[in-house]
Amino acid sequence: MKKWSIYFMVLLMMAGCSARPTSSQVEISEISMREVGLTEPLTIAEDFFPKDMNIVALGDSLTEGVGDSTKRGGYLAYLERKLLAHKAIKSVTITNLGKRGLRISKLDEVVDKNKNALQHADMIMITIGGNDMMKVVRSHFFDLSYSLFEKEQKKFAVKLEKLLETLRSINEDATIVLLGLYNPFGTLQAIPEIEQVIQLWNEGSKEVMDRYENTVFVEVADLFANHDDVLYSDQFHPNDLGYQLMAERVYERLEAEETLVLWIREQ
Fold first, then answer.
1. 263, exposed or middle or buried, with CB in 10 Å at 0-12, 13-18, 19+?
2. In this predicted structure, what is the pLDDT of residue 77?
3. 237-248: b or e for each residue (b if 16 or more CB lie within 10 Å)?
4. What's the pTM?
5. 166-203: per-residue pLDDT in tens?
6. Which of 221, 188, 190, 193 is nearest to 205 (CA)?
7. Roughly what angle, to the nearest 10 degrees, separates helices 146-170 and 194-209?
8. What are phi and psi of 12, to 5 degrees?
9. How far apart are CA 110 and CA 99, in angstroms?
10. Over the range 214-234, which residues count as b (16 or more CB within 10 Å of their CB) and which as e?
């Protein structure tokens, strides 16, 4: 009888040992019973790594910066400061190809000689048209009329479209920015419709720009309307304040069009 009792006690002890879960069994059990919460994958903000921006500027004396006392490139120097203040932009390289007196018919030569620079541009800035208007003035000083400007504007629009086609054939992705005209023409005040002429010219240019993707037209006429304090001593070109206002307007338009956001995202 005592022998069977011993056997019975041993069996109870063995059953107790087999019923006790191991530490690994406890962990697995707890994991299976616990609701698993998956964390979202780590994402990096688009502006986490600042990027280099390459700008090529084409055009006339406004691109060259005539009237800028610092001689650093007019509105482009102020625009560079604005861009560098953006947390997503590490550096800005500007190739300034502006030349005083340039008309749109002469831009083809500049573009042809600088295809490599244009191919690598993230943004192409253009100021053109003022000298095309002055050509009308010089040719018809004593018989100026609205119809003469209207006729010349249509020719200008055709040349602008050709310019955009050429630029797009060289660089499909760069943002193309065209600054509109303003009225500094003191000699043209004899024409009652001069403000309408400026408006006509700008609206025609904007219509051409709107036919192409990734383009921005920047209106600046209002910055100079009845503001003599923004003009250089020649009463034609902007002074430092004028260029600064132009740069601020360009930056505002780039932000409004989300141009910088899209550029950062695509880099």
1. buried
2. 96
3. bbbbebbbbbbe
4. 0.80
5. 999 999 999 999 999 998 765 555 566 788 889 999 99
6. 221
7. 20
8. -65, -40
9. 10
10. bbbbbbbeebbeeeeebbbee
Q: Which residues of 140-178 are buried (b: 16+ CB within 10 A; e: fewer)?
A: eeeebeeebbeebbeebbebbbebbeebbebbeebbbbb
Degrees (nearest 5) of the Cα angle 55, 61, 65?
65
β-strand partners of 57: 96, 125
DSSP string for the chain: -HHHHHHHHHHHHHHHHHHSPPHHHHHHHHHHHSPPPPPPPP---TTSS-EEEEEEEEESHHHHTTT-TT-S-THHHHHHHHHHTSTTEEEEEEEE---TT--GGGHHHHHHHTHHHHHT-SEEEEE-SHHHHHHHHHHTTTS--HHHHHHHHHHHHHHHHHHHHHHHHH-SSSEEEEE------GGGTTSTTHHHHHHHHHHHHHHHHTTSSSEEEE--HHHHTT-GGGB-TTSSSB-HHHHHHHHHHHHHHHHHTTHHHHHHHH-
The reported pLDDT for the residue numbered 134 is 84
Taking residue 45's Cβ as centre, other Cβ atoms within 10 Å add up to 9
Q: Which residue has the tokens 């050509």?
A: 135
Beta bridge partners of 79: none
Q: Which residues of the chain have pLDDT under 50?
A: 1-19, 21-26, 28-29, 31-33, 36, 38, 42, 44
